[in-house]
Amino acid sequence: MRILILGGGSIGRQIAEALKGEFEITIVEKDELRAKSLEESGFNVVQGDFSYTAILLKANIDKANVVVITTRNLETVKKTVYVIRTNNKDVPIVALLPDDMPKETLEDIILEEFEKEARIDYGIYPQKAITDAFLKTLFQLGEKKNAFMLMKKLNEIKGESDSLLILTHNNPDPDAISSAVALSVIAQSVGLKTTIAYGGEITHHENQAFVNLLGIHLRRVSTGSYEIKKHSAIAIVDTQPNGNLTVLEPEDLARVQIIIDHHQVFRHLRELLPENAFVDIREDVKASASILTEYIKALNVPISETLATALFYGIYTDTKKFSQLSQVDLRAIEFLAGKVNHELLDRIEHPDISTETAEILARAILNRKVYKNVIVSNVGFIRNRDALAESADFLLRLEGISTVLVFGIVDDYIEMSARTRDVRVNIGAVMKEAFGEIGSGGGHATMGGARISLGLFKLAKDKNSLLRLAEEAITEKFLEALKIKEQS
Fold first, then answer.
1. How many other CB atoms are there within 10 angstroms of residue 27's CB atom?
2. For residue 197, which of 50, 84, 118, 221 is within the disulfide window of CB 3.0 to 4.6 Å?
3. What is the dihedral of CA 459, 463, 464, 469, to 10 degrees?
4. Do 369 and 375 contact (CB within 8 A), yes or no?
5. pTM of whole model > 0.70?
6. Does domain 138-348 fall into CATH 3.30.200.20?
């Protein structure tokens, strides 16, 4: 590509140096001494005033593929653009422009002054470019600050112990699992031995495929177990101690040294933690995996194809297939994109559905009750909690439905999963309002969940009575939080 640089001053010279060897460069420079210096540096130079036709013809303006105007003199820019367009109407022009003058305004001025349409293809605004460079640097410093603070905390832990327990929420999804694995890799880089654990079950068929195909080792633990007690330092990812994490006892919280999450901050969180705990909770970020990716990038920690694939899929699922992204999520995707095994991704996303999941989905469809544009469905006694989310996702696709709640009884708890596509509804806030005081509830704007201990419901004489009582109470509270009258 032939690039014609008009002006061999500091800007023009730096551009030419950067492009040297990549493109065919010609510099037009008026100053004789500067032109000679450029020639001595190996550049093809035409000495003269580039706002004149003869000089541009000498520089082969008719054969140029791109013209770069580096002068800041507005009068010279106007005349030069006019002369360029007179001799080459199609060549792209890149010009330095005042920050308060859009290129369209300058084109209008040229038309009025020279009675000729003269297109400027790209305007470069120095003040904006400087501001953007500062912002980019500050964002990078922000990313590194969090990563370096995490590394400092990991080194502190290493000074007192050789191990770190990493906990996810009870029923970990790809975002939680990949975040835990990423933190494990970072912790291992300072010499810590890590254990990744969870307290519930992994029953969602996609999540099972995710763990199995990527060869991720997780350990299931229970409240009060030796596996929890033996670690002097605990890290928590994608949840908080007073969120969907029930395996920790109050005395365990003194050993929580790290929390990384993207959900809303739960009340009294700081009161539960040691004063010097590392806490990075960003409610504007859509996936914890994005935060962990940021750490890995900032710390230059080597990332395997398996981990890149895990993090990429974790972001994919928690951002609803990349439909809801913050700048942190976008930068993480950009960093991971070229490192992902796409064949594995496809196998994870399309696993075989289990018979149990299919049965629960069928129950959700058959038992659905419609209240205006809202569905509430009771799937009864189940073992596979993750099937609730799959059922809610499916019911939300029904015509005319904007909000869904699916619930079932798992062991001694009523488990719930909610979804919405109504922009007026924050379903996480709805679940918290409806069930927060009698259990736990929360989530994001479009997806949420809740859990309630059976408690008094256990007094029901039989299972059918139990289900009926639970359904009446849950439906009433959910619709009340949505401000919908209970009328199917």
1. 28
2. 221
3. 40
4. yes
5. no
6. no
Distance CA 173, CA 289 (A): 11
Whether residue 487 has pLDDT greater than 60: no
For the domain made up of 2-124, the CATH class stated in words is alpha beta
- Is 95 in contact with 101 (CB distance < 8 Å)? no
| Buried residues in 462-488 as b, exposed as e (16+ CB within 10 A) | eeeebbeebbebbbebbbebbeeeeee
Token pair, residue 443, equals 């989530």
Read out DSSP for 239-284?
S-TTSS--S--GGGGGGEEEEEE-SPPPTTHHHHS-TT-EEEE-TT
Q: Which residue has the tokens 């289990």?
A: 354
Residue 375 CA to residue 320 CA, distance in Å, equals 21
Q: Which residues, including other chains, have CB under 8 Å from residue 51's CB and lie 6 or more apart? A: 76, 79, 80, 83
Structure tokens at 444: 């994001």
Q: What pLDDT, on a 0 to 100 scale, did the predictor assign at position 466?
A: 84
Sequence letter at residue 13: R
Topology of the domain comprising 355-482: Diaminopimelate Epimerase; Chain A, domain 1 (3.10.310)
3-state SS assignment for residue 351: coil
Query: How do 374-381 and 368-371 pair as beta strands?
Result: antiparallel
Which residues have C-beta within 8 Å of that of residue 459, sequence separation ≥ 6?
Answer: none
Question: 279 to each of 149, 174, 238, 455, how far by Cα in Å?
Answer: 10, 21, 12, 33
**C-alpha distance across the termini of the chain, in Å:** 69
Q: Answer with the residue of higher pLDDT: 411 or 187.
A: 187
Q: What is the pLDDT, as a whole number, of residue 488? A: 46
**Structure tokens belonging to residue 255:** 């050993």
* Tokens representing residue 393 in the block: 């996702």
Q: 442 in the Ramachandran plot: left (φ > 0), alpha (ψ -120 to 50) or beta? A: left
Q: Do domains 2-124 and 355-482 have the same CATH topology?
A: no
**Residue whose C-alpha is closest to residue 365's, from 403, 402, 406:** 406
Cβ-contact 102, 76 below 8 angstroms: no
pLDDT in tens, 291-347: 999 999 999 999 999 999 999 999 999 998 888 889 899 999 989 988 999 888 888
The alpha-carbon radius of gyration of the chain (Å, integer) is: 31
Closest by CA to 363, choosing from 349, 347, 384, 343, is: 384
In this structure, the number of other CB atoms found within 10 A of the CB of residue 255 comes to: 17
Per-domain boundaries in the chain: 2-124, 138-348, 355-482
